[in-house]
Design the sequence.
């Protein structure tokens, strides 16, 4: 269709002639600008220029509501339809003929439609058998349209859906430039939308040469403008703004996304990591899903939670553990960013829409804001951070296969999965992640911070106003274990068992002495270090019995330390650092066939189908030293050994050597 409609094409619609003035390339559909045309003088009217989408004109041409003429007059309707649409028209026409021939009335009755469906040959049209309700709707639409067969098929817009959409890598790059050059303070790094569009197009043009699959299309300036306008629409309704109002709106939008102080706005989201992890006994645990929160003012990650499982997914438990990590100090002294956020932004997932997460956020004094799913511009900083995390950290780990919904997986075999390449343990992954955050990311230059390090900006802001960094009254936050609830039996030794773990405390011992048989427990699947036990009006924390502790599941790390003093205005410009995984020299994925063979052999040994290979010794050639001819056997064995060594040796040989003789 794009080859038929072009600039200068003439068409007739509503008894008037028109000419196409121009076609604007849009994100979802092209826009056609056209003017009235005088048939006699072949002159166009400049007084009025109208506009319609190319798909609308396409629909009018198919429904005979418009007509192309002159050079395009010989283009039949069949060329505007796909082969699948033409096949559908033939199939439904044959079905209608069969149905109306068999039944003269009650065309949409259930028994009549079922009879026609059973008698019609769907296989001859390479089609599936349609349901009764679909056939009834087709019959009704066909009769209501005056027996027009075009009413039985669509216009084929679904075939063009997503054909011109930009890739995820291009979208991530746009969001990155949006965060670094638009939502910034009034300094030297701030750029206009036109300047950002030029920078983006030049960057994508350069990347498309080295990575054509990730950057196949260079977006036009209108597409980039539309991305910015989508973000501007978050704070205003559709209205005409003057330049002064637009400038004020941009400043307000910048203050909304990039506040003046830390912890005013925190963005939190989950990332799926297709990398298998094992435990210390080399048993496969599953893949990873992480919930990470980042401060939009300083770009510092504030906390994270991690869940490992064969079907790991987002949950309220994961969100609560991440929020606990945000507001409490960490054990790692190199990670000093923490505190209660004023606003915490998440998308509309099951992890953050529940009452448990919102209740905890409100009790802490934070305002939880949930945006619609699929709108990356609503929380652009965490999306940009995930892009950096995959490129700078995850891609350098052994056994990393990509995200959970990876599209470009041509480097993998058909049966290649995360379990096959699992080589890291959970402790190794957590140690590597914290090493990257504390020693690389937080100390590296960030373009959105005027090439300052996020750690320096955080320390400078906290040193000026230490009251910005607050902690909840209960620093451990162990009482927030409300995600899962279970009724557990209380044993005589003052212990309870939950998830193959044993929890013991003096409070439980006192309850057992009072003839209490069961208690109500609140626990978390992410952090198994303690549970909350409730009995009547008493609530207390019960720690895990250490000797029975398992490390198969993720235990949430405790949070941050005190901040150091610094001056942001006096911070030196630092260089951009790149993370390198320190353990192991093999990068990338191992040989697929060898890994698959090794995995199959390991499973056969575990199931008992195959015995482990053992070293075998041939005892048939043993010499009995108590026998009469033992001396002759020993001499013959020595002769045989000497003969073998002579064959290997490149020097002189002694053919006539006899044991016991003279050389």
Sequence:
């Amino acid at each position: 269709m794009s080859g038929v409609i072009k600039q200068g094409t003439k068409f007739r619609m509503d008894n008037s002639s028109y000419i196409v003035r121009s076609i604007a390339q849009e994100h979802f559909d092209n826009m056609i600008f056209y003017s009235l045309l005088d048939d006699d003088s072949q002159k166009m009217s400049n007084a009025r220029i109208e506009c319609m989408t190319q798909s609308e004109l396409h629909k009018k041409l198919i429904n005979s509501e418009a007509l192309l003429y002159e050079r395009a007059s010989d283009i039949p309707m069949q060329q505007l339809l796909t082969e699948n649409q033409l096949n559908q028209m033939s199939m439904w026409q044959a079905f209608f003929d069969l149905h109306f021939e068999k039944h003269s009335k009650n065309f949409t009755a259930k028994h009549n439609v079922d009879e026609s469906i059973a008698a019609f040959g769907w296989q001859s049209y390479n089609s599936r058998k349609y349901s009764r309700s679909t056939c009834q709707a087709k019959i009704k639409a066909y009769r209501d349209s005056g027996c027009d067969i075009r009413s039985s098929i669509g216009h084929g817009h679904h075939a063009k859906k997503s054909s011109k959409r930009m890739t995820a890598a291009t979208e991530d790059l746009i969001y990155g430039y949006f965060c670094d050059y638009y939502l910034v303070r009034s300094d030297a790094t701030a750029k206009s939308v036109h300047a950002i569009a030029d920078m983006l197009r030049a960057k994508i043009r350069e990347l498309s040469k080295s990575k054509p699959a990730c950057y196949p299309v260079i977006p036009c300036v209108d597409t980039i403008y539309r991305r910015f306008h989508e973000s501007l629409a978050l704070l205003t309704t559709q209205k005409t703004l003057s330049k002064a109002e637009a400038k004020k709106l941009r400043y307000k939008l910048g203050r909304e996304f990039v506040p003046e102080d830390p912890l005013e706005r925190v963005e939190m989201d989950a990332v799926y990591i297709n990398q298998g992890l094992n435990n210390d006994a080399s048993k496969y645990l599953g893949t990873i899903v992480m919930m990470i929160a980042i401060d939009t003012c300083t770009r510092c990650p504030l906390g994270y939670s991690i869940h490992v499982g064969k079907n790991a997914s987002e949950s309220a438990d994961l969100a609560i553990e991440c929020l606990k990590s945000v507001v409490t100090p960490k054990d790692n002294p190199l990670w000093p960013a923490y505190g209660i956020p004023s606003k915490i932004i998440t998308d509309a997932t099951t992890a953050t829409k529940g009452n448990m997460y919102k209740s905890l956020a409100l009790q802490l004094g934070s305002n939880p804001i949930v945006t619609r799913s699929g709108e990356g511009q609503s929380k652009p900083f965490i999306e940009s951070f995930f892009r950096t995390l995959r490129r700078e950290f995850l891609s350098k780990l052994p056994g990393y296969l990509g995200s959970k919904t990876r599209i470009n997986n041509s480097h993998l075999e058909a049966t290649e999965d995360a379990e096959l390449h699992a080589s890291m343990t959970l402790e190794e992954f957590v140690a590597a992640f914290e090493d990257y955050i504390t020693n690389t990311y937080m100390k590296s230059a960030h373009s959105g911070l005027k090439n300052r390090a996020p750690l320096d900006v955080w320390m400078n802001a906290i040193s000026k106003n230490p009251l910005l960094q607050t902690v909840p009254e209960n620093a451990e936050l162990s009482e927030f274990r409300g995600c899962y609830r279970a009724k557990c039996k209380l044993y005589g030794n003052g212990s309870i068992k939950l998830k193959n773990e044993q929890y013991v405390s003096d409070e439980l011992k006192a309850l057992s002495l009072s003839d209490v048989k069961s208690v109500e427990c609140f626990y978390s699947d992410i952090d198994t270090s303690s549970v909350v036990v409730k009995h009547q009006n008493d609530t207390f924390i019960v720690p895990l019995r250490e000797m029975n502790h398992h490390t198969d599941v993720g235990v949430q790390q405790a949070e941050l330390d005190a901040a150091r003093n610094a001056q942001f205005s006096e911070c030196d410009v630092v260089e951009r650092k790149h993370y390198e995984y320190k353990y192991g020299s093999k990068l990338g994925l191992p040989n697929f066939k060898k890994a698959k063979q090794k995995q199959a052999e390991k499973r056969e040994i575990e199931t008992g189908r195959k015995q482990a290979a053992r070293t075998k010794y041939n005892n048939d050639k043993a010499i009995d030293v108590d026998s009469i001819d033992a001396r002759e056997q020993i001499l013959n064995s020595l002769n045989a050994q000497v003969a073998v060594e002579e064959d290997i040796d490149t020097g002189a040989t002694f053919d006539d050597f006899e044991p016991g003789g003279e050389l």
The chain has a mean pLDDT of 75. The CA atoms of residues 38 and 48 lie 13 Å apart.
